[in-house]
Every structure is written in C-alpha cells, then in structure tokens.
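Hello Y.,

Per our agreement to keep a running log of every chain we model this quarter, I'm adding this entry. I've kept the format consistent with earlier entries: sequence first, then predicted structure.
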Amino acid sequence: MKQNQYSQKHSEKFEKKKDNAWENMNKIWQELEPIILKVKQLDRNGYNNFCFHVQEYVDNPKFKGTHGVKNITTSKIRNIFSILKKMKAPEEVVRLRPSLAYLSGRDKKTKFFMNHLDKVIKNIETKEQLESFQQFFEAIICYAKEND
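Predicted structure for the entry above:
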C-alpha cells in the first residue's frame, strides 16, 4: 500500500513539473512572439530583451530536454536554418511549412517548436520580417549551441 502511495505522489510531482515547464514555455513564447518579426527595428534595449527571451526559450526543459536527452538537436535546427538563410523573398518562406510538419510528425518532442515556427512563418509578409525571422533563427542556434 505504501509503495502505491509513493508511486502516486512521485507521479503527481512529475506531472506538476511537466505542467510548469509548459506553462513557463508558453509565457516565454508570449513575450517573444510579438518581437520576432520586428528584430531589425529593435533598439539596443529591445535587442537585449529579445536575446534574453530567446535564451530563456532555449533553456526551457521543453526545448533543451532533460537528463542529457535533447528534445531538439542543433543539427535539426541547422537543417532548417540552412534552407531559411537561402530565402530572399517572403513568399519563399511558406515553403518551409511542409518540412516543419514532417519534422513535427517524425519527432513528437519537436512539435511545439515546429508549431511556433509555423505560426510565425504564416505572418511573414515583408523582406524586413523575413530578415528578422532569420535573425531570430540564428539566435536560437547560437543559444542552443551554448547549451551543448
């Protein structure tokens, strides 16, 4: 009986931590999302704030994983970025969406990240927004590599 109670309490603690990580990730994303397509317009303080939120996003256990197991590898991110950085026009970015869906379906741990990217891609309308998105993506790679 005591073993069952311990297992149940341990399971409840784990679920609470898991929920907190998702809650934190969503809060960070709410701060980050509105500025992703405006990175090129940010002043020094705004850019520092942007960097802080990107680092928080990448440091979250839902992004970086736990216990030495990565949720999103830098190679996956670089593969997407290698395609993205070749794009010169906003109309081209929508071509990334099927790749994101494929990666999301292949590895469920990346689904939240791919959905976040997809949401931003849908809103890219200008060259400046495309360049801002590319800078955001580059920042993701940099902070993810820092965590390696």
